[in-house]
Design goal:
Low-confidence stretches: none
Order of helices and strands: EHHEHEHEEEEHH
Number of helices: 6
Radius of gyration: 16 Å
Strand order of the largest sheet: 2-1-3-4-7
Distance between the termini: 28 Å
Mean pLDDT: 80
Structural class: alpha/beta
Strand content: 15-25%
Oligomer: single chain
Length: about 170
């Protein structure tokens, strides 16, 4: 099984919003854009990453079972990134790409998506590597699709950011 993309909630999140995130973010899987395997994500309910070995199931009826009390209150993407660098190695949780559901997400159904993949700054010298955390606001629907595309190098965050500039700052 491939790494599971982590979803960090930096605020308490009602079950209705979690359900909407799961349904919308996995829509490309249901419409045939990507296969189910590529879209694995887990909503983190604790800071113990070793306990997350499977994706969060998509509700088939009703809503997500309960509201989520954030184990990462008011964390920034940089704090999440630092946490992943320390705790993701040796787990099933992806250490470079992640989602942040924050206070804004509760109102507009967008989330912050982040990429800290290894980039080669000089294609002639493959040793010239850079690690730079970059984030982008995305709709729930496009969040997982973007992470998968970045992970398999179909596109990168820079291309997604250019698209967001012409769509009022949100990747769609």
């Amino acid at each position: 099984m491939a790494d599971i993309f982590p979803v960090f909630c930096t605020t308490d999140v009602p079950s209705k919003v979690l359900t909407t995130f799961l349904l919308h973010s996995h829509e490309p899987m249901r419409d045939g854009t990507l296969d189910e395997y590529a879209m694995d994500s887990v909503i983190l309910r604790s800071s113990d990453l070793t306990s997350f070995t499977e994706r969060t199931p998509i509700p088939t009826s009703g809503v997500f079972p309960d509201d989520l009390v954030s184990p990462f209150p008011n964390w920034t993407a940089q704090q999440v990134h630092s946490f992943l660098k320390l705790h993701a190695p040796g787990t099933k949780v992806h250490g470079s790409n992640f989602v942040v559901i924050d206070a804004r997400s509760l109102h507009d159904y967008t989330c912050e998506i982040a990429d800290n993949s290894v980039k080669f700054s000089d294609t002639k010298d493959m040793r010239a590597v850079r690690h730079e955390l970059k984030t982008l606001r995305a709709t729930f629907r496009d969040s997982m699709l973007s992470l998968v595309n970045w992970d398999i190098a179909n596109t990168d965050i820079e291309e997604s950011q250019m698209h967001a500039e012409i769509t009022d700052g949100v990747s769609m």
